[in-house]
Amino acid sequence: MSDQFEKKPPVTTTDAGIPATSDEHSLSVGPNGPLLLQDHYVIQKMAQFNRERVPERVVHAKGSGAFGYFEVTADVTKYTSAAFLNTVGKRTPVLLRFSTVAGEQGSADTVRDPRGFAIKFYTEEGNYDLVGNNTPIFFVRDPSKFSDFIHSQKRMPGDDMRSSNAQWDFWSLSPETIHQVTFLMTDRGTPRTYRHMDGFGSHTFMWINAQSEKFWVKYHFKTEQGIENFTDAEAKAMTAEDPDFHRRDLREAIDKGDFPAWRLDMQIMPFADAANYRFNPFDLTKVWPHSDYPAITVGRLVLDRNPENFFAEIEQASFEPSNMVPGIGPSPDKMLLGRLFSYPDAHRYRIGTNYLQVPVNQPKSEVHSYNKDGSMRYRHNGNQPVYAPNSYSGPQANPNIIEPGWETDGALVRSAYTLHAEDDDFGQAGTLYRHVLSPEDRDHLVNNIVNHMSQGVEKFIQERAIKLWYQVDPDLGTRIAQGLGLAISLQVEEVK
Ligand code: NDP
Ligand code: HEM
Question: Which residues act catalytically here (predicted)?
């Protein structure tokens, strides 16, 4: 910054590069006279100003990001043919955007919420986007419920305020949410910084190797900074003190050369295991227990460069789970399949048809598609044919790339997944409560839930939620009921 002050400043110009004659005065008839329409410079300033905002993201509006690289640290070619993963030591440039989910662009960083953990790998085979969260699971397992869930988290139509009542109404009517709500209500729901939390691909994905063998995989980015969380009270205090605390922390750490890093661990399931695994391995409300599929370390992600211009490089960044490179594909997770449609559609609306031509979204590999024209297009392949087939050396698809598919058949239905032996909504949340959380974590969990459920939640909704907490764990249900002053102590049998 100081260098900039020492340099001779350039001449102000219009956006068309024409030198401007004043940074202070509009063109007027005499010093006090009326202003003139021919002052195209000031008119451009005002008109551009009116158009500075694009719609904010409908979810994950408040976020921050940085650039860096991903480095392969183990040979994974027996699992995937993805070129960016094919050599130990290979580095691929990345952009990582962190975010909260429910708040608007100006909202505080430190509120209780899942955190987005969206990575764009600029690979030699095109962009690979892994658009995950800091939780390995999610609230719902069917995309048809996503907008209803989000509506319950955001502002209500009447008073335009958020409503704990609506949140617990939705959650208590949707038992599948309880595992993620448990996670969210622990202190991991209020991470100390973006640097001190893990990231997850969350969904199950497919990897395919050069011999066409397929595997089911899960991505775990483990923070090298260590997990650190705020307590509920600390998070609330920081919300008041510095709403941009996470943004500032990330920027300052990178500016001073303290580059945050994550270790990439993968869980890998042989393709054939999925059918009879004890849980539905594609259900986004469940993890794969590590005892069943231990994680192997395959890489390291480092952030070492801040954006120069936040709007251009972070606000306009467009992540899409549908961006998957050869060797990587989706799984039958219905949420993931729904997301494949949703994001490019969101970007066409939020940024515009040619959002992939904005520099931050441009692949670093060549683009040879048959798409053309549209608002603000400037990258093109000259007079390349715009239809296929053609006789003029237009691009040709590569049929040798293995489609990441699986066998499927059946009647068209609207139905829940078929159940696996140990599928239920409460077991893994109970394991988290009983076997993973420390006694102190459990105390905080109870307090966090009681605080949250005390904020204007109607009694019948509290009681319905308590029945779910009993099914997670009778001790947890009892403690929350006591904390809320509810005179119910339902046994698990009574509430099923
Ligand atoms: P493990 O004991 O092998 O793993 C426990 C996992 O829980 C670790 O990944 C650990 O992550 C994470 N963890 C530790 N403390 C907390 C906390 N306070 N809040 C949330 N997560 C925490 O057991 P399992 O693999 O059998 O999983 C048991 C339960 O742990 C699951 O039911 C799930 O609720 C939770 N969990 C499981 C994960 C998985 O992928 N299997 C991932 C995250 C949570 P860390 O190393 O960062 O401490
Ligand atoms: C952002 C839709 C589930 C993580 C978004 C956006 C939409 C959306 C429309 C805004 C995109 C933009 O304007 O740039 C959906 C739908 C889902 C779903 C329809 C379910 C069917 C999930 C899940 C995760 C997730 C399960 C994590 C595992 C994110 C993240 C962002 C985001 C991290 C912000 C990306 C960024 O930083 O730009 N989602 N989402 N979403 N979503 Fe989802």
Answer: 60, 133
